[in-house]
């Protein structure tokens, strides 16, 4: 797909693109990949906190969504359906890494202290240029995963409560409680300083790479 065709396709609604992909215009799927790269990256990082693994899970999610595109029933937005696939893949990977653990509200403080004591450098610290961004990124990274994911989805990706509930299979009350707990765990001094568009930014070069890799895998199906 040429540059001009890509720009034109970018204005087509998801539903029309899906129908056309199912009718054989396979190249159009790249538009859906580009539209959802940023969201999937941020949410994936909130779960796995590992750039290389997240990019791998993103590609897997995109390919699985393509393979099952004919089953998409339009009961929710395509981005919501795709996000659920990505979350499932990330949680499965986290379990394999033995990083996923059940945490009760009673041991949240202990978990935060353990994370703070580890001081493990991650790709997160390389993503932001200013000292403020690094501090904020670290504060978000130290949140327990179940709170961190809800925070990223609601506050950074601006997903609504209903969509977050659907993606994480949570009740409305649980979403609100986890978001409030996430905010409480973040230092108040940072609460008014961050810009959501700068957090876990998915650079264009990465978007191009992910899109190219996904389309290569789809072409071989």
TrEMBL record:
Keywords for the protein's UniProt record, in alphabetical order: Sigma factor, Transcription, Transcription regulation
A GO MF label: sigma factor activity
RNA polymerase sigma-70 region domain span: 32-97
GO biological process: DNA-templated transcription initiation
Cited InterPro entries: RNA_pol_sigma-70-like, RNA_pol_sigma-70_dom, RNA_pol_sigma70_r2, RNA_pol_sigma70_r4_t2, RNA_pol_sigma_r2, RNA_pol_sigma_r3/r4-like, WH-like_DNA-bd_sf
Classification via Gene3D superfamilies: 1.10.1740.10, Winged helix-like DNA-binding domain superfamily/Winged helix DNA-binding domain (1.10.10.10)
SUPFAM superfamilies, sorted: Sigma2 domain of RNA polymerase sigma factors, Sigma3 and sigma4 domains of RNA polymerase sigma factors
Stretches assigned to the RNA polymerase sigma factor 70 region 4 type domain: 135-186
Top-rank taxon, per record: Bacteria
PANTHER family per record: RNA POLYMERASE ECF-TYPE SIGMA FACTO, RNA POLYMERASE SIGMA FACTOR
Family of the protein in this entry: Belongs to the sigma-70 factor family. ECF subfamily.
Protein name: Sigma-70 family RNA polymerase sigma factor
Species, as recorded: Rufibacter latericius
């Amino acid at each position: 797909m040429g540059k001009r065709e890509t720009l034109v396709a970018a204005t087509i609604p998801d539903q029309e693109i899906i129908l056309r992909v199912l009718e054989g215009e396979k190249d159009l799927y790249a538009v859906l990949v580009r539209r959802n790269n940023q969201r999937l990256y941020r949410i994936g990082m909130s779960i796995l906190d590992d750039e290389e693994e997240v990019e791998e899970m993103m590609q897997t999610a995109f390919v699985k969504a393509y393979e099952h595109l004919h089953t998409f029933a339009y009961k929710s937005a395509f981005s919501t359906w795709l996000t659920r696939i990505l979350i499932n893949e990330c949680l499965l990977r986290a379990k394999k890494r033995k990083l996923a653990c059940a945490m009760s509200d009673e041991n949240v403080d202990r978990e935060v202290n353990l994370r703070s004591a580890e001081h493990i450098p991650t790709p997160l610290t390389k993503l932001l240029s200013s000292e403020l961004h690094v501090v904020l990124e670290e504060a978000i990274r130290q949140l327990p995963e179940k709170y961190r994911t809800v925070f990223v989805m609601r506050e950074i990706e601006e997903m609504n409560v209903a969509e977050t509930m659907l993606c994480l299979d949570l009740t409305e009350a649980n979403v609100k409680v986890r978001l409030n707990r996430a905010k409480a765990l973040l230092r108040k001094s940072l609460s008014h300083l961050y810009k959501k568009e700068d957090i876990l930014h998915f650079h264009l070069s990465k978007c191009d790479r992910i899109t190219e890799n996904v389309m290569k895998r789809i072409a071989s199906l």
